[in-house]
């Protein structure tokens, strides 16, 4: 494991120098207020105050990637102003990959949208790039009105859907075919679109009142920022409708798309807001039109744009504004219930399962669970503890039950194995019962050090290419010398010092349960990690986020007794065990086949060592 990958965590590794974890990294900026409190009376809003009260991209649950302006419909008051865009464009696969990489660390949904993204001539290729760059299906969204014949690739790619066929029979038929592969609901019936070209400056000419309306804009409150390809260049916008105006006018007021652009505060987008918002109709909240009318309303400020339309579209000048209490897009009464804010937050939550195999651990399990419960967590992370009792003969189950009743900081679930089957089977039982995004396999006598979740989850969020992150280990009550090479080998053979993506654990098939791995030859965790590093990229944080309790006469002692170090290299003194070798080969081959079948492996030509990225972290950076 000596190969060293690019040290790209950077500032992340200095975060623990601060006592308050909530100030450490980008997690603290997601889903929280900008820090500016604006107290105002009606019609006393200034441009600066309006901008300060608006949501920045980092506070949005969704960021949209517009990949094409092709569309098979001509909806009234289209939010993409497609009929007003004179040039046909499709985002290149290279630009699509760059756009995704610019969103590294963004915890929300990344929505592929258009036009209709399924009309992009390289849609399947974009789907493949999406899977390569964004590891979590829950972050990969598809916004479409007709999926055509792409049902299979869509089912493999996306985990979130916003499908609105606008009552078009072809679109409905394509989506109902998709439902054979995935559970994807869609908007039934017709919809109504508020006008975009009825500029709020024309409807509400008084500046204070106009900026008051802009501050309460439905798009900024409930929709998303976006990335588009504008004149062959990637551009970022605080608002997806702002991007539509730029594309329709053939102008470029977007910001360059660089990694982390979405972190910028809303004030950074002030020039865009001042340029686009007064000319947009959404803040005016006027009555919408039926989507199938193929008609746009406009006001004097947007006359040139409205009259520069393609096809036989009707344009109607605004004469008598009719105010509406509805959002920019509304649906008929047959429409399925829209998600509540609480449900949206639920969809944004990242879930972690800490799976603890337990056998006669009543003396240590309390401290182990406490080390999980005491962790400070980012606001959108929820952790559950799953204790799988392997038919303990002591009172471990009763202890866990009492902890579950008394511990308010974390959810605790207890499970009982039908018979004593060993730690591998217990871990796999817990894994099968979990639906979390990430899993930790923590032994019942180990403990997590403060900062484990915050640093490791942030590392996986910033580094989508990593399947897991392992950390160094602190030995507690160690009664003998451990050489550095032996310590490194332990890091890569124990399960507790790691967090991994749940999907990767499933691909590997969990831990090997062959009886050859039980007893004094226990090595199922080492074989599991061997498979992991051979087939996926793994990060290594060189700081002890795990406290490993040493017991005399344990496998720890056996390992030290049967190894030595010569010229800094670990040597094994014992003969290999044929049964263990055969069981290991069977497991590794099965895991490799499974991963290849799922087409999700990133196999290293060097047997996995080049897949280990090492991140240095010094002890003094943690101690206040």
Unreliable runs, pLDDT <50, ≥5 residues? 1-43, 333-337, 599-610, 618-624
Number of helices: 21
Please report the total strand number as a whole number: 23
Mean of pLDDT? 83
* Sheet having the most strands: 9 strands, mixed
Q: What is the rounded distance between the termini?
A: 31 Å
Shape: elongated
Helical percent range?
25-40%
Strand content: 15-25%
The CATH architecture of the largest domain would be Alpha-Beta Barrel
CATH topology of the largest domain: TIM Barrel
Count of domain modules: 2
Q: Mind telling me the C-alpha Rg?
A: 28 Å
What does this structure look like?
This protein is of the alpha/beta class and 624 residues long. It folds into two domains: 62-343, TIM Barrel (Alpha-Beta Barrel), CATH 3.20.20; 349-608, Spore Coat Polysaccharide Biosynthesis Protein SpsA, Chain A (Alpha-Beta Complex). It has 21 helices and 23 strands. Strands 13, 14, 15, 16, 17, 18, 19, 20 and 23 form a nine-stranded mixed beta sheet that branches. Helix 2 (93-102) runs parallel beside helix 3 (123-133), helix 4 (151-157) crosses helix 5 (169-178) and helix 19 (524-535) runs parallel beside helix 21. The longest helix has 21 residues, at 578-598. The two termini are 31 Å apart. Residues 1-43, 333-337, 599-610 and 618-624 have low confidence and may be disordered.
């Amino acid at each position: 494991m000596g190969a060293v990958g690019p040290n790209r965590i950077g500032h992340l590794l200095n975060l623990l120098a601060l006592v308050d974890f909530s100030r450490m990294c980008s997690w603290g900026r997601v889903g929280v207020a900008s820090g500016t409190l604006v107290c105002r009376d009606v019609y006393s809003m200034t441009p600066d105050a309006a901008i300060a009260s608006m949501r920045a991209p980092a506070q949005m649950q969704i960021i949209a990637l517009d990949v094409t302006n092709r569309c098979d419909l001509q909806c009234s008051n289209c939010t993409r102003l497609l009929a007003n865009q004179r040039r046909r464009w499709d985002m290149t696969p290279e630009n699509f990959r760059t756009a995704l990489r610019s969103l590294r660390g963004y915890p929300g949904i990344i929505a592929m949208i258009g036009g209709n993204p399924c009309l992009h001539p390289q849609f399947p290729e974009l789907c493949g790039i999406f899977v390569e760059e964004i590891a979590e299906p829950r972050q990969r969204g598809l916004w479409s009105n007709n999926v055509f014949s792409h049902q299979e690739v869509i089912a493999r790619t996306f985990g979130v859907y916003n499908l609105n066929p606008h009552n078009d029979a072809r679109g409905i038929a394509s989506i109902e075919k998709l439902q054979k592969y995935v559970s994807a609901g869609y908007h039934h019936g017709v919809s109504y679109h508020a006008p975009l070209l009825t500029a709020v400056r024309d409807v509400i000419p008084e500046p204070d009142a106009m900026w008051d309306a802009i501050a309460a804009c439905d798009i900024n409150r409930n929709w998303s920022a976006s990335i588009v390809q504008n004149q062959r260049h990637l551009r970022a916008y605080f608002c997806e409708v702002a991007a539509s105006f730029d594309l329709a006018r053939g102008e470029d007021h977007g910001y360059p798309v660089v990694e982390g652009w979405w972190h910028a505060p809303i004030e950074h987008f002030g020039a865009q807001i001042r340029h686009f918002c007064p000319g947009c109709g959404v803040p005016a909240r006027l009555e919408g039109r039926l989507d199938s009318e193929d008609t746009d309303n406009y006001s004097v400020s947007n006359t040139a744009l409205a009259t520069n339309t393609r096809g036989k579209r009707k344009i109607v000048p605004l004469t008598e504004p009719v105010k509406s209490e509805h959002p920019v897009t509304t649906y008929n009464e047959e429409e399925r219930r829209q998600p509540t804010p609480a449900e949206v937050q639920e969809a944004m939550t990242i879930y972690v399962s800490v799976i603890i195999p337990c056998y006669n651990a009543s003396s240590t399990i309390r401290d182990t669970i406490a080390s999980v419960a005491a962790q400070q967590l980012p606001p959108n992370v929820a952790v559950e503890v799953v204790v799988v009792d392997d038919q303990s003969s002591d009172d471990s189950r009763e202890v866990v039950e009492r902890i579950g009743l008394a511990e308010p900081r974390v959810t605790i679930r207890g499970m009982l194995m039908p018979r004593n089957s060993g730690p591998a089977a217990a871990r796999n039982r817990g894994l099968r019962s979990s639906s979390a995004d990430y899993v930790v396999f923590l032994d019942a006598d180990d403990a997590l050090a403060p900062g484990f979740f915050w640093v490791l989850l942030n590392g996986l969020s910033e580094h989508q290419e990593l399947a897991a992150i392992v950390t160094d280990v602190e030995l507690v009550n160690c009664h003998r010398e451990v050489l550095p090479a032996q310590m490194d080998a332990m890091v890569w053979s124990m399960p507790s010092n790691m967090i991994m993506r749940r999907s990767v654990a499933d691909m590997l098939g969990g831990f090997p349960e062959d009886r050859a791995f039980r007893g004094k030859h226990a090595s199922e965790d080492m074989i599991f990690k061997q498979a992991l590093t051979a087939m996926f990229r793994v990060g290594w944080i060189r700081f002890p986020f795990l406290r490993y309790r040493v017991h005399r006469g344990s496998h720890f002692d056996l390992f030290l007794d049967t190894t030595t170090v010569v010229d800094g290299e670990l040597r094994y003194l014992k003969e290999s065990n044929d049964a263990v070798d055969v069981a290991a080969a069977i497991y590794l081959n099965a895991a490799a086949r499974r991963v290849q079948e799922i087409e999700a492996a990133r196999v290293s030509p060097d047997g996995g060592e080049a897949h280990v990225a090492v991140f240095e972290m010094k002890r003094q950076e943690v101690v206040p």
